[in-house]
Known about the structure:
Layout: H1 2-12, E1 45-49, H2 55-58, H3 64-85, E2 92-97, H4 108-124, E3 129-135, H5 139-148, H6 154-157, E4 160-163, H7 215-219, E5 225-229, E6 234-241, E7 247-254, E8 259-266, E9 272-281, E10 288-293, E11 298-305, E12 313-323, E13 330-333
Parallel strand pairs: 1-2, 2-3, 3-4
Antiparallel strand pairs: 5-12, 6-11, 7-10, 7-12, 8-9, 8-11, 12-13
Amino acid sequence: MLRQCLKWREEIDIENHQNRQTPEVLKLLPNISLPIGKAKNGSPIVYLNYTGADMKGLFRCIQTKDFMWWLCYELEMADAVVRSTSKPYKGLTLVCDYNRISMDVLSKQNLDFEKQFNPIMEKNFPEIVNKVLILNGSTVLHIFLKLVKYLIPKETLSKLEFLKDPKDLKKFIDDDQLIGHYGGTLVDEDGDPKFSSKIIYPTKIPESFYIAPNFADYELNSDYTKVEIGRGKEISVAVEVATIGFSIIWFVLSKDGELEIGINFKAESGDVEPVEPMSKVNCDVCPESGSKICSKVGTYTVVIRNNAVLKSKKVAYNVEVLKEDDSEPILTKL
């Protein structure tokens, strides 16, 4: 384990932070802040606020490997603080606020990221989490956790505590160690109860941060279907959904300009109704991804349309049905 960890650290060059500049977009997203106060069990507290976090926008602004590096670096810094202030080593107590979490967390890009990141945490930071206190656990969050729970060790899952009210934090944190924003008495040096100097409260990411994708990367990736859609033409990808609550997840990238994307549902009577209206997306500028929780059983069709009059467009796409059972989800590629 130690040898593998050292090899991983060398491969990603985790200590070479001097030559890396923090991408501006990360200043708009939840951060693994330096610990603020201590829980009743003596473990330092880190606050992660996901309220309004624009995860979909994030993956349009930064490469996954760069985002992964910065998360690992933040974990490294937090871990160093824990080791210097908490003896014996007790790990971190994470206070995670998921108020108004969006459907973006169910996107293919975010789920793919979780598949990569969770094993890294398990192998290289196995003891960093002591307790995870989850606030405002919405339906979307519970769906997300169901989809990724098979990636999380049982020992870590046992550390999750779902709290209905911020007042419940006081079961784990004394008033003088809990920040004022959540009902405690602890405030920043300038009197700010939200500790805005250390904790990021996310906002919508401006499109000016978006980066253009390299279509050639997707042409070489077997996970994506490549087609050329003629001018004024469209393609339809039909999927069968057998159980209410399953999700359709899509990813579309164009090489030659905007497209229109929508989802239709075909009833047993043969009637077709739109469940996701056709809308224009600039997926030549940044990939378009989304998800739809199915409220009916039957046939759903993802429609990708080239609305151009003069030219055909090369497109790479992936459509999947995300199925759940009692043990773990199964990704079915279509």
